[in-house]
Amino acid sequence: MHDPETASFDCPVLIAGAGPVGLLVALELAHHNVKSLLIDRFTEPTKFPKMDVTNGRSMELFRRLGIAEPLRQAGVASHHSFDVLFVLPGNEPPVGKWDLPSVDQQRAAFALRNDGSAPLEADQRVPQSTFEALARNLCRHSPLIEFREGCAFESLSQDSDKVIVTLRDVETDDCEIIRASYLVGADGAGSHVRKQLGIKSEEIGKLPENYMIHFRSRDLKELHRHGQFWHYFKSGGGILIAQDEQDSWTFHTPRFDGETDDPTALIANRMGLAPKIDEILLTSRWQPRFVLADRYGEGRVFLAGDAVHQVMPSGGYGMNTGVGDAIDIGWKLAAVVNGWAGPRLLDSYEAERRPVAITNRDYSRRHTSVHGGFRELVAEGAPPEQLNAYLQANRGENEFDGIEFGYRYTESPIVAHESGVAPPWSEFDYVPSTWPGARAPSMILQDGIALFDHFGPELTLVDFTGTAGTLVESAAVWDIPMKHLPIAEARIRQVWERDLVLIRPDQHVAWRSNQIPQPAAWRDILDLVCGLDLR
After folding, report:
1. Rounded to whole angstroms, how far apart are CA atoms 302 and 348?
2. Which of 110, 196, 185 is closest to 155 using CA atoms?
3. CB–CB of 20/128 below 8 Å?
4. What is the pTM of this model?
5. What pLDDT, in 10s, does the model give residues 334-378?
6. Euclidean distance between CA atoms 257 and 248, whole angstroms
7. ∠ CA 92-84-222 to the nearest 5 degrees?
């Protein structure tokens, strides 16, 4: 049993795990001026590339934190495409290609449609190892983050007003008891925090174990035999990923009992390529899974990222879903700690994020099945024309803007939902709307500044009448931080659909109206949005 009387340290939020999600929770809390204790059993960032692409929605959320451009500087240069090649055994030309635009091409396309349908940020190719190195450095130097590397989570207990956590120094085995107001378990697929809470997970399907080889090679003559690529799919063989467009590559292939572990032989046998390999950096076996936890936490303990959902990399829904988790629980914890929101705000975390994880899991399975279907057609001897037709008819991986930008928090208890028919939704296209619970449409103002860049760090009241300042003033009287943002541009008002739109810290719509509410009604709206006790 934990003895709170022996606790040696008090903190508002303790975060277990410094992968991308845990790092982002700490940075989000710091963005709202909330201190945290971040622990990780490792003393260095991962050396495994892992994640492959940070999608535009994640980049929008990173932009709020000031880390979008540093990440681009550390990632793949903006002129390289995201092209995917599909190749048969032998050395024939690709039978199919998904032309996916570079960052530069995405930005040029966005600039042509300032109608709310375009993202503010393009995708970014960057390995997880690079992201973690950048984010760890930011956390190490933040005055609001106590970052303890080489410190492992051991156990927890909690009551109505605190969480008592035992930590262990990995080097010395010394233990320490910490008292925190809240705990976030971002400690990966094997989450020890989740196991301590007794939360179970559901796994769907069974996939073969994979073998990963991370290597260096500058032999572009051989590796780019069919042209520059991001992903290179060899039917029946594996996947070759260009990590940095210079000399870093990762090869993934299903591995079966009795097969060789020799990296060079596997690449040659499975890919039909024989590049000069300068160095084998890492090899590992990993088990792809489709897993979703039954619950996202208990009491004052919350789970995020791989601790609650795991999917195949297909579509990039793993880490990017975790980014949404981190920002969601981060701003909500900060609002409660800072005193302008109530505990019902935290109750909304699972209600908002778990449905998103279900959708992303299902579409990851869909994308994975497309690759399986391609392999089956090849095994049946389908001609190249049929294979290409199949691939073009089943596009969508890394192209479904509706999945990445169009998710709506339709089951959230802190959104002022409306009656009537919701706007149409498509997995392929993002439909701009301020329907409550949706991500607000991104647009560029006449002065060239992005509308999102005008949002405040907490709540923002976008006012197309210019007369609703009293609502912000009354919110301040109730100690609810809110920025008044008058906009006098008719084209933006047309896309935004209402005269008044209340935006949350995560750029989602909390409430909207064409009328200025009376004081009592306004208080009720803020009580709902902030998770406070209704009068």
Report:
1. 12
2. 196
3. yes
4. 0.96
5. 999 999 999 999 999 999 999 999 999 999 999 999 999 999 999
6. 28
7. 50
